[in-house]
Recover the amino acids of this structure.
């Protein structure tokens, strides 16, 4: 199976590839990066799911490009920057079997080394401008993680996250809103590190986990257009509301936490067999994860409220939360009080992603009001 990455890779496009891969069960997945330049909202989460599915099925994963790649001299610059300095590159290169350029040479080893050099120089952070990510590479022995996302991070997560945000030169958020953002990031990442790196028998899983923060302008060329390319639905409607009420000068922020684990439904049900049964049972388990006290760690005081706290942070930030796990996609914005969740059945994909979309500004009382 071969897919070509467009200049702008959308989550909708990658969802199509996931469905095609599941239907065909190919022995090889080839990704043509010749035109690839950037990934749009939520696309990295779907790309990680696709490549995880391929690896665990035993399929070879080849990255190909028509250009000759010279990592040392960074030519072609856009492609080398993508593959060596961004979270998309970490996912592609770490999960791939080979990375073959136009000369027929396998450049994967040199790209892995370039990522390691970048990680050491930037405390494990990837990205530039207003898009930064903190990945954790499990089993592969990839670049060391940022201090913020080490598995032993605790109370220091708060100051490290604040320092991370400061690197992006964004307008300041009101402190209570920044705290809500930190709470969302910590609670979702805590779930990720507890459940996203091991299977139900506590065996380590290979893969990538990450925290991503980026902002894009709310304009016809920015978030609004990206939302429309997500094939409509609640996310597009939410972004259209932002574009109408906030204008082109404001930013949309995406905070995403993603892993390659067994997924929320299997974690709560205690078995991956839930994916073989009716989708309604899986949807129920996923929705139940956002209620007070529901946890796989039964009998431990104080647990089971992390995802509920993330939901409260979403409302405080006037945001939208998007969840993709197993066969389930959930969306809920702060506006949806009467019918809180929009649930959709999709082809099964490994892992879990929890994303928060929100306006990077102090929410105003009249937002979305007529």
């Amino acid at each position: 199976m071969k897919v070509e990455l467009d200049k702008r890779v959308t989550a909708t496009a990658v969802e199509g590839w996931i469905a095609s891969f599941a239907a065909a069960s190919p022995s090889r997945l080839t990704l043509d990066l010749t035109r690839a330049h950037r990934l749009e909202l939520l696309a990295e989460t779907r790309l990680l799911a696709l490549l995880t599915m391929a690896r665990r099925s035993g399929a070879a994963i080849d990255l190909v490009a028509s250009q000759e790649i010279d990592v040392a001299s960074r030519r072609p610059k856009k492609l080398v920057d993508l593959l060596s300095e961004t979270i998309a590159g970490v996912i592609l290169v770490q999960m791939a079997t080979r990375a073959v350029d136009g000369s027929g040479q396998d450049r994967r080893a040199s790209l892995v080394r370039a990522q390691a050099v970048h990680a050491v120089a930037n405390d494990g952070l990837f990205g530039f401008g207003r898009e930064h990510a903190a990945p954790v590479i499990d089993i592969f022995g990839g670049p060391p993680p940022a201090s913020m996302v080490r598995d032993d991070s605790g109370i220091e997560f708060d100051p490290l996250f604040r320092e991370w945000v400061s690197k992006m030169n964004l307008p300041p958020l009101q402190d209570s809103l920044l705290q809500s953002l930190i709470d969302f990031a910590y609670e979702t990442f805590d779930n990720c590190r507890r459940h996203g790196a091991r299977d139900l028998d506590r065996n380590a899983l290979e893969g990538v986990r990450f925290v991503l923060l980026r902002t894009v302008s709310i304009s016809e060329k920015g978030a609004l257009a990206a939302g429309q390319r997500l094939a409509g639905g609640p996310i597009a409607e939410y972004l259209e509301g932002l574009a109408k009420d906030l204008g082109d000068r404001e930013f949309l922020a995406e905070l995403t936490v993603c892993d390659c684990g067994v997924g929320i439904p299997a974690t709560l049900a205690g078995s991956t067999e839930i994916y073989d049964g009716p989708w309604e049972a899986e949807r129920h388990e996923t929705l139940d994860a956002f209620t007070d006290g529901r946890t796989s760690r039964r009998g431990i005081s104080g647990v089971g409220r992390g995802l509920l706290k993330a939901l409260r942070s979403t409302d405080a930030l006037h945001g939208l939360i998007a969840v993709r796990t197993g066969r389930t996609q959930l969306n809920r914005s702060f506006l949806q009080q009467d019918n809180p969740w929009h649930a959709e059945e999709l082809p099964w994909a490994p892992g879990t992603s929890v994303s928060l979309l929100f306006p990077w500004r102090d929410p105003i009382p009249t937002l979305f009001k007529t």
About this structure: The chain has twelve helices and twelve strands. Residues 296-304, 362-370 have pLDDT under 50 and may be disordered. The first helix runs from residue 11 to 24. Residues 290 and 308 are 5 Å apart (CA to CA).
